[in-house]
């Protein structure tokens, strides 16, 4: 856990220096506008950062458990519990957004000017950007699946990284928003594993 914390701390500090140049490039190059105009593409690319994607994986794992019957030995139930709990815990990004109050890129507010509790709970997701909710879910999924289905870990992490990159290039988030969301997601998965281990201990 300490290694993850240290790694994300370094990555976060580094990402703060990239917030302005990368968001400016995405805006000035027209890439952000292009992505905003291709809604279907962006929704497909960022789907692994959607809680429904995580639920779909849980459903597949439970279906395999059911089809395997007694032969499966309950090998997927604990994994589903970890994945589902990690996804739920990653939802802490919403209250954090409200408390930090960082406005999304190119919405008329400088990147380091914060407005905590400005819009209230109703508009939190649409108005605030720190930390990234899509990144939180995507990296919670990637970490949880790496812990439970480690053979496919390159796939899980590739999907999560693509989600983070898309959010930055669309000017929906600054790089530091995505790094913070990734840290939250990874932390959620590690905590979920500990909680499930306690609950299922015999």
Largest sheet: none
Question: Structural class, from secondary structure content?
Answer: mainly alpha
Shape: globular
Q: What is the CA-based Rg, rounded?
A: 18 Å
Q: Note the beta-strand portion.
A: under 5%
Number of strands: 0
Task: Show unreliable segments.
Answer: none
Q: Mean of residue pLDDT?
A: 86
SSE ordering? HHHHHHHHHH
Count of helical stretches: 10
Cα-to-Cα separation, first versus last residue: 25 Å
Helical residues, percent: over 70%
Show the helix and strand layout.
Blueprint: H1 2-28, H2 31-37, H3 39-45, H4 51-68, H5 77-89, H6 93-100, H7 124-127, H8 133-148, H9 153-169, H10 175-199
Q: What does this protein structure show overall?
A:
- The protein is mostly helical.
- The chain contains ten helices and no strands.
- Helix 8 crosses helix 10 and helix 9 packs antiparallel against helix 10.
- The longest helix has 27 residues.
- It is globular, with a radius of gyration of 18 Å.
- The protein starts with a helix and ends with a helix.
- The relative contact order is 0.18.
Summarize the structure.
The chain is mainly alpha-helical and 202 residues long.
Question: Which features would summarize this protein structure in a list?
Answer:
202 residues; mainly alpha; globular
